[in-house]
Amino acid sequence: MPPFNEEVIMRATFRQGARSFLLLLMLVLSVTAHAERKLLDQVVAIVDDDVILQSQLDARIETIVNRLQSQGTGLPPRDVLERRVLDQLVTESIQLQMADKMGMRISDNELNDTMTNIAKQNGMTLAEFEQQLGAEGVTYRQAREQIRNQMLTSRVQQRQVGNRVRVTDREVSNYLEAKQNQGADSAQYHLAYIFIQVSDPDNDAAVNAARKKAENLRQQIVNGRDFREVAVAESDANNALDGGDMGWRTESQLPSLVAPIVPKLPVGEPSRVLENKSGFHLVMVMDKKGGKEKQLVEQYKVRHILVRPSDARTDDEAEARIRDIYQQLKDGADFEKLAKEYSDDPVSGSDGGNLGWVSRGQMVPAFEQVMIEAPVGELEGPFRSRFGWHILQVLDKRTKDVSSEMRESDARQAIYRRKFEIELQKWLQEIRDEAFVEFKGKYARDENSTGEADQSS
Questions:
Q1: Domains parsed from the chain with CATH numbers
Q2: Among 21, 235, 387, 414, which residue has the least CB neighbours within 10 Å?
Q3: No. of H helices and E strands in the chain?
Q4: Taking a C-beta distance cutoff of 8 angstroms, is the pair 102, 156 a contact?
């Protein structure tokens, strides 16, 4: 397959292996230790076959506090933050156990590419990125594990929730038509969001209580309380511990519930309380910027040959093969013929290695960098990406106005994202209800030991 990037919905987590053994070890220590023993760690929750340790909870809280403080976001009371972070760790543990049962793995090469890309996106080298993490109290090793687990939970969500979502051409057409009738432009909005879930939509008292809470929170924000602080302390949305940050959205990417509101909403003012079947919502425009009428992109007509390492072929053997292919090409062999014969990319290989016209952002960083710098017609390689060893050749370059394609793509993504977010909330509640969750120590709750009674996440 071609080396395309994956879009990741990421949330940080810490997870330790062999926890069943750890529980046994802690029990033995508690029996055999004497007066001067010192408790090094303790279990704060049991989640199916996993446990969450106090050290994990403390580390996650420290990471979140550092991030919120760097953003200038106020913090809720410590006990509130502890409870919300622990609930987040429980939900993540359930998903990581699912990933393990599905046999999902993130290779070191794939993780290295991701870490390098994150550093580049922040304008840093990998060494500078590591130094920055250290300044924020996070080791590079801890950051790698956080990112690895983010990637795993994202893949579980995509596999379990993504197949529930379908976007039809008719929906895209209707979406674009509605936007055109609204006179939508290319403005972009940096949004923050608060969601108050209704525990029982069929119970009038529960609905009224949620509505009253949302109205009260809105008034607190109007009176000067920081929107992001309220999101951290009170929101039931998945991004609550990120201060409700939704990132930048074009007008075509706005969720349908807030699409009529956001373009008219002044920067820094909360919306009125919005209601749908799932609960009550507040949105705030944190910043706004205009866009360009035309979407001009650089495109590259490129072909490649891929040789993958496998169980039957070591990385050194894969490199040796790609170098042999490269030498054949330098000696005048036909690229198309060799791609059909040797490429491990079944889609492009059957077409002589052809990937067609490719825009920036479509390929993994290692491949894209070589593609961008390659002179037209020249062979480039061999080089490695997380998919394996490549040779590529850029056949042509062009600048293209892709406004129409971008609008359609944005519409499809907006519809998909809206449906996905709805289904994700349902699915997260489902897996939490089905899980065995038992809180320990001061976090113990007066409820039965199954997740069915725990509706807090």
A1: 43-163 (1.10.4030.10), 188-289 (3.10.50.40), 296-401 (3.10.50.40)
A2: 21
A3: 14, 11
A4: yes
